[in-house]
Design brief:
There is one protein chain. The longest helix is centred in the last third of the chain and has 23 residues, at 313-335. Helix content is 39%, strand content 14%. Helix 3 links the parallel strand 3 (46-50) and strand 4 (73-77). The radius of gyration is 22 Å and the shape is globular. It has helices at 15-26, 39-42, 57-69, 79-83, 85-92, 130-133, 164-174, 188-191, 195-202, 220-232, 253-265, 294-302, 305-310, 313-335, and strands at 2-7, 30-34, 46-50, 73-77, 114-115, 118-119, 139-140, 153-154, 181-182, 210-213, 240-246, 269-274. The model is unreliable at 332-338 (pLDDT under 50). Helix 3 (57-69) runs parallel beside helix 5 (85-92) and helix 11 (253-265) packs parallel to helix 12 (294-302). By secondary structure, it is of the alpha/beta class. It is built from 14 helices and twelve strands. It folds into two domains: 2-92, Rossmann fold, CATH 3.40.50; 114-320.
């Protein structure tokens, strides 16, 4: 059988499609990766479509319809499809596979750039797809591989809530991996309760950064405790990254900027992240009470360390407005044919 495996969120790395390909090749099928529904995919017997981000769903639905019109059988899955199954069905007539797919979950490989050593998270945050994709119960894996590549990812959603034995085994297996990215980071509310123990364990890894998140007001003190502790261990701002969700739960522009500035004042590196509803296909979603451009202005400053380390917010706003005006003027001239 000829099978197309399609990553609708290309060029972002999609762990699932690599596991699919490895399994199908092992079963004796002819398999190729495809970027959307290209000619090769339309000549296949079956296509597996994986969508990570909801804003990729409109083009994914277009591809699904093109494939089906060409007589190709299609299966659809991934976080975005799980978040909006009704949208996919209404636009294609295809029922999506929701959640994890056990056919592919445990396909081993020594060339993956990513790994999950556990699944699930009991936090059930309102902005997060994990509870719907993986569930709230922590599930620990033993059959996982060491990720490869220059910047390998560990994708566990809350590794500190796995058992201590699991964490010890994980560190022992990963201690020689360079530039390891624990992408979802450490839960600061857990880390702060036993910082010396976690430090003694995880300092054995060659991590890209100590990652945390400051998404809710109640995490404010926990973030300070964790960052202050790491500073006493000689970890500087470049090696402490704090994700900060912007625009969620009536979060205003003023509140978001205050929270990001708070992180700068703690001498850590903010990583602002745009909130998008789980049922929205808008990539540049504008939260209620915000105006167009505010989100970009925040990201252009707090998401770029050389900016917030060398310029004040007021200087940034003035420069940002000047550049925007100049760009608009240039656009006007181009429209006039000059």
């Amino acid at each position: 059988m000829k099978i197309a495996v399609i990553n609708e969120s290309f060029p972002r790395y999609n762990f699932a499609v690599h596991k699919m390909k490895k399994l199908f090749v092992a079963q004796g099928h002819t398999v190729e990766f495809s970027r959307r529904a290209d000619m090769w995919a339309k000549e296949c017997d079956k296509a597996y479509v994986s969508v990570i981000f909801t804003w990729d769903l409109p083009k994914a639905c277009q591809d699904i319809n093109n494939l089906r019109a060409a007589g190709v059988e299609v299966e659809v899955g991934g976080p975005a499809a799980t978040a909006m199954p009704a949208y996919v069905f209404e636009n294609t007539g295809v029922m999506v596979h929701q959640g994890l797919d056990e056919r592919f979950e445990h396909v081993r490989g020594d060339d993956y750039r990513a790994v999950f050593t556990s699944r699930g998270c009991p936090r059930a945050c309102g902005f997060c797809i994990v509870q719907k994709m993986e569930g709230r119960k922590m599930i620990e894996y033993e059959d996982y591989d060491i990720p490869a590549g220059k910047n390998p990812y560990v994708c566990d959603n809350n590794i500190l809530l796995t058992s201590w034995a699991h964490q010890q085994t994980f560190v022992d297996r990963m201690r020689n991996v360079k530039n390891l990215d624990l992408n979802s980071g450490f839960d600061d509310r857990v880390f702060m309760k036993d910082m010396d123990r976690y430090w003694d364990l995880y300092r054995n890894l060659k991590m890209e950064s100590w990652r945390f998140a400051y998404d809710k007001p109640e995490q404010r003190n926990a973030i300070k405790i964790c960052s202050d502790f790491l500073h006493t261990k000689g970890i500087e701002y470049r090696k402490i990254t704090v994700f900060a969700l912007v625009g969620w739960d009536n979060d205003s522009f003023v509140q978001a900027r205050e929270r990001l500035q708070y992180l700068v004042d703690l001498q850590v590196s903010p990583y602002p992240m745009r909130f998008r509803p789980l049922d929205s296909v808008e990539r540049n979603y504008i939260p209620p009470g915000w105006v167009k451009g505010q989100m970009e202005m925040l990201f252009a400053y707090y998401g770029v360390a050389p900016k917030w380390r060398s310029h004040s917010w007021e200087e940034h706003v003035a420069n940002y407005k000047k550049k925007k005006e100049k760009k608009e003027q240039l656009g006007t001239l181009q429209m006039e044919g000059l």
